[in-house]
Amino acid sequence: MSIHILAIETSCDETSAAVVADGKTICSNVIYTQIATHKAYGGVVPEIASREHLRKISAVVKTAIAESGVSLHDLDAVAVTKGPGLIGSLLVGLSYGKAVAETLDVPLIGVHHLAGHLYGGIMSADGMEPPLVALIASGGHSSVVYLREHLRFEVMGETRDDAAGEVLDKVARSLGLPYPGGAALEELAAKGNPDALDFPRAWLEQNSFDFSFSGLKSHVLNYLNRAAMKGETVNMADVAASFQKSLFEVLAQKAVNACKTKGVDRLILSGGVAANNTLRQTVAALAATEKIRFHYPPKTLCTDNAAMIGAVAYYKYLHEEFNSISLNATANIPLENE
Asked: Hey, CA dihedral for 304, 305, 308, 309, is it positive or negative?
């Protein structure tokens, strides 16, 4: 008999609920995005985000259950994102999830947000099982993770400053592009020459899998400022394309190097930045040279969504890794603590 889990994700500015069967089958996956609300501010405003979650969560959960065709009384557990994320946003989803779990008298399962992104890749591919390496690139995180077996995470590298999605948004803003910057920058970069400008690549220490993109961001901003001071015309498309190339080459190379270090031939790309087609192509080309099987999830599973939370929760359910009603949200929590 299938295990059906109601999952809730509210870590940032998407209110999402899903019903997932056996960690793979998405019965429903409803996402309400707040992009239009935050666009006027050029980024996510935490207080507004939590208020929007409060306003929408009940309708989103009810819609997810209705669309799934699974009755409330056939749910086996409720999964919620416990962190990391915006604390106010997390608390909305967690409180609602607790109430549902208590009402139905089913287990409550807290899930790490980054584990969700990783499992968004696993659930969307056949045969993409551990051991494997995942490159998780999003607005708040850039991580290389080794999944030895289900739920056993080793963070091999992570960002030391700006995450990939964060620096994409900041450079996009400096180019005068609208929020959200990553998508707009990708569109502009498609019209430019990625070899027009030689921006730096931060490889850091030998054999390091960490990332540091603040220097690249500063280099691009300084280039634009110097050009403006001198009255020089800048080809914005070339800047966008060259910046993307520098950023994505580092992400791709470190992910492939991690596979070689661990002796695995499976690599997953996930997280919001994984929706970028140029990044997908860059990693795919490099992985192919090393005969590494490469997979990325569909775009609906790259951005924040509840289905990925339900995928992780299934394996926790099998191991009876349940949480008490006292579970609290945590803004920052190591993935190894999952």
From this structure: positive
Distance from C-alpha of 210 to C-alpha of 75, rounded to nearest angstrom: 40
- For residue 180, say if its preceding peptide bond is cis, omega within 30 degrees of 0: yes
User: Residue 178: is the preceding peptide bond cis (ω within 30°)?
Assistant: no
What pLDDT score was predicted for residue 98?
A: 98
Tokens of 292: 């590494």
Question: What burial class does residue 45 get, using C-beta atoms within 10 Å of its C-beta: 0-12 exposed, 13-18 middle, 19+ buried?
Answer: middle
pLDDT one-digit tens code per residue, 278-335: 999 999 999 999 999 999 999 999 999 999 999 999 999 999 999 999 999 999 999 9
User: Residue 301, class by beta-carbon neighbours within 10 Å (0-12 exposed, 13-18 middle, 19+ buried)?
Assistant: buried
Look-up: residue for tokens 């996402």? 31
**Residue 82 near residue 329 (C-beta atoms within 8 A):** yes
What is the rounded CA–CA span in Å between residue 70 and residue 27? 8
As a whole number, the mean pLDDT across the chain is 96
Compute the distance between CA of residue 163 and CA of residue 14 in angstroms, rounded to an integer: 19
Phi-psi region of 22 (alpha: psi -120 to 50; beta: other; left: phi over 0): left
Query: 178-224 pLDDT, tens per residue?
Result: 988 999 999 999 999 999 999 999 999 999 999 999 999 999 999 99
Contact (Cβ atoms closer than 8 angstroms) between residue 160 and residue 211:
yes
**φ, ψ at 297 (rounded to 5°):** -75, 165
What single letter denotes the amino acid at residue 187? E
Give the angle subtended at the CA of 83 by the CAs of 127 and 71, to the nearest 5°: 65
State both tokens at 262. Answer: 């661990």
Torsion on CA atoms 135, 295, 130, 259, rounded to nearest 10: -50
Q: Cis peptide leading into 334, omega within 30 of 0? A: no
The predicted model gives 251-273 an average pLDDT of 98
pLDDT at position 179? 87
Tell if the pTM clears 0.85, that is, is over it: yes
